[in-house]
Amino acid sequence: MDKNGKLLTIGQFAALHGINKKTLMWYDEIGLFRPAAINPENGYRCYNYHQSPILETILLLRELDVSIPEIQDFMKNRSAKNMERLLKEKISGLDLQIMHLKAIRKTLQNHYQDMTTLLTMDLSEISIIEKEERYLVTVDIEKNISFEKEVELITAKTAKYQLGRLHDASYGSMIPAASLLNGNFNDYTKLFIEIPSLNQKEGLHIQPKGKYIRAFHKGAWDGIPMRYREILGYARQKGLELSGFSYEKGINETVIDRIDDYIVQIEIPVVE
After folding, report:
1. Cα separation of 268 and 243, whole Å?
2. pTM for the complete prediction?
3. Which residue has the higher pLDDT, 18 or 160?
4. Which residues contact 54 (CB under 8 A, 6 or more apart)?
5. In this predicted structure, what is the pLDDT of residue 33?
6. What are phi and psi of 197, to 5 degrees?
7. Which of 119, 99, 162, 128 is nearest to 270 (CA)?
8. Cα→Cα distances 36→44, 62, 142, Å
9. Structure confidence at residue 171 (pLDDT)
């Protein structure tokens, strides 16, 4: 094929690049991408092979959501330096989008696992599970702290880690295992926040990898101490030593209307 002299019709050139010929007509109308020639007999637009790299550049920039005015400005001042700058900006933007999508996916996966638990688990059962290490943002709390104060502390902490929405993270409460062993079932000392995507992990609480007792409590919170007594009895029977903290979190807030239906998941590290 004689690439130097061969002219393509607008339909052929559009098909070559996988776009609609109306797109080429619009690019011509706004002065972004002109045809190589106009057929003097019928006024049809014609393009040549050497225009393909220019069009592909425009299409790439459009795919990266670069605005038409930005592309027009770039095409008037095309250079390696300007292309490098533009692509660097877009790569940074894509990296942020990817991080955000990964965080959303992790949040959805956590909710999915909670729903699977609700539908498949015997919530009256106490069991031993294996957990991987995870990093948690924690907030120290005082005894008898008000709910309003808890919300205020969580809001401040999530703002520090640039969390867009509260429901993009998992939240819960922590009680030292030592307090449970002493019968202090309301000795909550920390709130935890599991943020899906963390840029830095220094200074965060590490929930250790290993075996955990897992149990559930359904109903009002004043019934949780009774569930802890059952957990302690289970641990004694199995010869298990509680360690670290008990981690509590609600797993069905999104699908209930009554506090009597509220389900708390309790997980406590154990040593055999």
Report:
1. 7
2. 0.68
3. 18
4. 33, 75
5. 95
6. -130, 115
7. 128
8. 11, 21, 75
9. 84
